Amino acid sequence: MEHVVIIGNGISGITAARHIRKLSDKKITVVSAETDYFFSRTALMYVYMGHMKFEHTQPYENWFWKKNSIDLKKGYVKSVDTDANTLLFADGSNLTYDKLIIATGSKPNKFGWPGQDLKQVQGLYSKQDLDKLEANAPDNTVCKRAVIVGGGLIGIEMAEMLRTRDIPITFLVREDSFWNGVLPQQESNMLNKHIVDHHIDLRLGVNLKQINDDGNGNVKSIVIAETDEEIECNVVGLTAGVSPNIDFIKESKIETGRGVKVNRLLETNINNVYAIGDCAEQHEGIGERRPIEAVWYTGRMMGEALARTICGTPTEYKPGHWFNSAKFLDIEYQTYGWVWAKPKENEGRFYWEHSDGNKCIHINYDKNSKKFIGINNFGIRMRHEVFDRWLTEERSVDYVLEHLKDANFDPEFYSQYEKEIVAKYNNENNTNIKVKSKSWKRIFA
Amino acid sequence: MKAIKYTGLAIFIAALSIFTAVLFIGEFKASKDTVAEFIESNSIKSDILKDELNNTIAGTTYSNGISFSAAIKGAIKKSNDHYDALIEKYDAEKNWDKKGEQFQYKVSNVSGMTYNLAKKSGSGLIVNNKGLFWWLTFGLGILGALLFITPNLILLGKPGIKHDHIYHEAATNRGWIAWLVLVYLVCFYLVLYFAPYYAVNWTFILDPISKALNGGPASQWFVYGFLYCTIMIVMAVRMYIKYRHNKYQIMRTTSVLFFQIVFAFLIPEIMTSLNMPGYDFKNAFPLDYDFFFEWNLKSLTESGGIGLFILVWGIVLTLVIVPLMVYFFGKRWYCSWVCGCGGLAETLGDPYRQHSNKSLNSWKLERWVIHSVLVFSLVMTLVTLYCYFSGAESLIGIKSQWIKDTYSFLIGAWFAGVIGTGFYPIFGNRVWCRFGCPLAAYLGLVQRFKSRFRITTNGGQCISCGNCSTYCEQGIDVRAYAQKGENIVRASCVGCGVCSAVCPRGVLKLENGPEKGRINPTEVLLGNDVDLIELAKQNRQSS
Predict the structure, then answer these.
(1) Does chain B have fewer CB atoms within 10 Å around its N or its C terminus?
(2) Do the domain assignments include residue B53?
(3) Cβ–Cβ of A304/B524 closer than 8 Å?
(4) How far is CA A294 from the centre of its chain?
(5) Residue B203 domain-assigned?
(6) A372-398 average pLDDT score
(7) Is B325 domain-assigned?
(8) What pLDDT does A354 receive?
(9) Which strands make up the sheet holding A201-204, listed edge to edge?
């Protein structure tokens, strides 16, 4: 019986394991040094905030793995010998495989800042990071102030977490506006305000110079590069992005760049060795996507596709239309298609913001053909299926606005803003679009 | 703000302490006249009991309702023991005539009789100061609770999901506070159902309100009804603050509050005052399990037009309105918009919703238990109706009285009351609704197989965080469906909407739509463009 070994029990590795099990009776072993069982990384913040217990982050009950004969092995893989099809573990043991899937995810970026390896300097990625934060910042007497370095999704999550323990936060963001490398200026401005409204000391356009210790190996303060201002703090969160967690294969024959290099079938340069999820790097980005995508659902999709390939149906990783979502403190965000931070030459934009400053939509379309390209929605939920279809059908921006009620996914009784939105669009574009009422027929078409 | 909050807590605890202490104070003394009238109206024939009542109890002053009730119960027991001994004696002698004679001397309704005499015999501090004690208990309790709750408007910050520290606090994480609350609630229900005579002082406090509403003094059920409404109103304020960003929750809370206060409480009280049978027009059989009991049918058929209307309405409600509404809106229209049990669960029980068990085993248990209760209630009703119309005492060996008593005791009192509400702080707020309610079982079958309601999963947006499953009060592992891109269609879902509210990625939406496409098993999640024709072929080969 063929033995498939998967390194990493995150969403990609576990999805691959589950789908291989659905499609075959191969022997499957999942190796992890992090936890005994698969858990949802995205929910770690809720454990610290007291919304959940760690066990709630585990999507499958503990009996699930044995019942589906997926073997779980706890161990840290030190190196891979692809000639002998063998994994060598830190404890000296080894494991042979017929097929190997590398799904080891990411690790927080560090940019060589002085003091970056102090005990109270940490990212927020793994279960160990959660435990560390619980130890470093249990309350606001132990941690009188925390400084978060890096204005991305994990940074804002960490700020939301620390707030719940009443720990004052200084948030250093390199860009001159929050996440404006990804978001257009309007949305970014809205979030700047939202962050400050939550009593977070947001510092835009600044970089970390160094982290000072107190002489006993504990964090004492940080220094801002631009101003040389020293800010006293007890914890430093490093959230300046992540990079593939692949140090253990650097010495092997597997080709790596920033990540493990794979083709569209997720195969590496070595036969029978594959990589999926955050640690995989496409030779070229697919469509407008980046070569490395550290996104929850792309890990899952790679797992689904690779399981087919391994079980005899070679299946390329073909992510469809881009979509994503996040939550910034109290504001939910979804996106379908592409809305770049800065419009490209052929692109037109339509922006609507609610007077409460917590809801907006931003539509991107082709100026010439009026083709709909993408939407950002903040504080309003939209239907994935509907936008996915509109993108496939290459609908026009006028069509999208006319049928916007079909896409609304807010809970029942919520105020709806389609009329207001379309009125603004009509006003700006001299059009006369009338909003159609929601139609199940169209939604299920 | 925090100071106000903690002052409120202190006031509330003081009120609760007084409310509890009330049971241990006051004065109880049955006059000779009261006892004589009592013996007369209850047609007591036992000389031993008469003797005890006249000579020991009448004229004696007891320092609280508990010692007074104990004395009455002791007297009844002494008498009953005496006649039991005689029954046994004549039984051994095979003297059937003599044995048969003894039964008339025995008292069966010990609890009711004790309560009645206690109600007539109370005097002293509480009876003389009903208004004052209302303010010291209910008044202070409401004030304290509101002072504790309303500062959350500011303390909890901007509108949004407020679940910080739920798993850090002893009250909401099964800590010592939760266990204390459990013990208090269980004791309360035990007194209410099995020893109402201990609670007679509570009824004095509410006598004025009861008189104003229905013309009579308050019973223990009036106390329960009034307390129920009060708690729901106060805890609804908490819901309004917590969910002020979520209109679905606001509407739903308002709806359960309205139906509890108007339908379950006011209308029946007013009907009673008009000499009509007090009826809760929204309480559908088989949750209203005694609707077809002889005494109710008798009372309805003897009440003229309104009785007949209630009879027809009750039948139409269960057979037509309930399933039709479930078809259009799901069982939520009843369970989390109208029902009184649901109303308490969604207000008082909201802080405990996370404690429902999500394991596969608990789901299996749920299906066995709830459907068994449904069958039990139907068999009971069948036996009762057969006996009612035929005049027989039993059907296929099941005695009508026995099965009614057993159901009332096990399901009506223990399951729905003591366990259903008493266990909120440890096992979650919907234990009764999930495992026990026969109406929920019936609604669930309709919802599962013939309804337009579903919780739609938004394509591939789920990140498996588990907020939805954690906060599902019905123990549904919502995430298991959402992460596969499948809609949630489950018999037990009461449509509270909290899974949708807590989802950080906008993945879940409760909605009523076409039946086609309601259940949507997915092979591959939306967003992954695998070749679907190829996939279908492959699936055919493998199957």
Answers:
(1) C
(2) yes
(3) yes
(4) 5
(5) no
(6) 96
(7) no
(8) 97
(9) A121-122, A235-238, A146-149, A169-173, A201-204
Q: Is the ipTM of this complex over 0.85?
A: yes
* Judgement on whether residues A368 and A432 belong to the same structural domain of the protein: yes
pLDDT score of A445 more than 90: no
More confident: A236 or B120: A236
The tens digit of pLDDT for each residue in B395-431 reads 888 888 899 899 999 998 899 989 999 999 999 999 9
Chain B residue with Cα closest to A335: B461
- Among A286, A310, A334, identify where a domain stops: A310
* A315: in domain: no
Is residue B86 situated within a structural domain? yes
DSSP secondary structure letter of residue B103: G
State whether residue A308 sits within 8 Å of chain B by CB: yes
The whole-model pTM stands at: 0.93
Verify that A134 and A162 share a domain, yes or no. yes
CB contact under 8 Å between A411 and B248, yes or no, is yes
**Structural domain containing residue B408:** 360-438
CA B504 to chain centre: 33
pLDDT value of position A391: 96
Residue B536, pLDDT above cutoff 60: no
Q: Which residues of B touch A59 (CB under 8 A)?
A: 464, 466, 479-480, 483
Q: In what order do the strands lie in the sheet with A208-213?
A: A208-213, A219-224, A230-232
**Is there a contact between B506 and B361 (Cβ–Cβ < 8 Å)?**
no
Question: Which of B68, B89, B123 is the C-terminal boundary of a domain?
Answer: B123
Instruction: Tell me whether residues A305 and B538 touch, CB distance under 8 A.
Output: no
> Which residue type occupies A39?
F
Closest chain A C-alpha to B160 CA, distance in angstroms: 6
- B interface mutation test: which of A54, A297, A441 has the most B CBs within 10 A? A297
pLDDT at A444: 87
Q: In this complex, do B159 and A414 lie within 8 Å of one another by their Cβ atoms? A: no
We report the CATH number of the domain holding residue A33 as: 3.50.50.60
pLDDT tens-digit map of B256-308: 999 999 999 999 999 988 888 889 999 999 999 999 999 999 999 988 889 99
**pLDDT of B132 above 90:** yes
Judge whether A405 is closer than 8 Å to chain B, CB to CB: no
**Which residues constitute the domain of residue A133?**
121-240
One-character DSSP codes across A354-411: -TTSS-EEEEEEETTT-BEEEEEEESS-B-HHHHHHHHHTT-BHHHHHHTHHHHB-PP
Q: Tell me the nearest-neighbour CA distance from B541 into chain A, angstroms.
A: 11
Percent of chain B with pLDDT over 90: 71
- Count of A-B CB contacts under 8 Å: 166
Q: Within an 8 Å CB–CB cutoff, is residue A312 touching chain B?
A: no
Torsion of CA A258, A260, A264, A266, to 10 degrees: -160
How many structural domains are present in chain A? Answer: 3
User: How sure is the predictor about B543, in pLDDT bands with cuts at 50, 70 and 90?
Assistant: very low
Write the DSSP assignment of B43-93 as a string of letters. T---HHHHHIIIIIITT-EESSHHHHHHHHHHHHHHHHHHHHHHHHHHHHT
Mutant choice from A37, A39, A52, A329 vs B, greatest count of B C-beta within 10 A: A52
Summarised one tens digit per residue, pLDDT across range B35-81 is 888 888 888 888 888 888 888 888 888 988 889 999 999 889 989 99
A288 and A182 in a common domain = no
Helix, coil or strand: residue B127: helix
pLDDT-wise least confident of A352-361, B77-86, B338-347: B77-86
Q: Which helix (H) or strand (E) holds A107?
A: strand A106-108
Closest chain B residue by Cα to residue A441: B514
> Does A250 contact chain B (CB < 8 Å)?
no
Q: How far is the alpha carbon of B13 from chain A, nearest alpha carbon, in Å?
A: 26
Judge whether A332 is closer than 8 Å to chain B, CB to CB.
yes
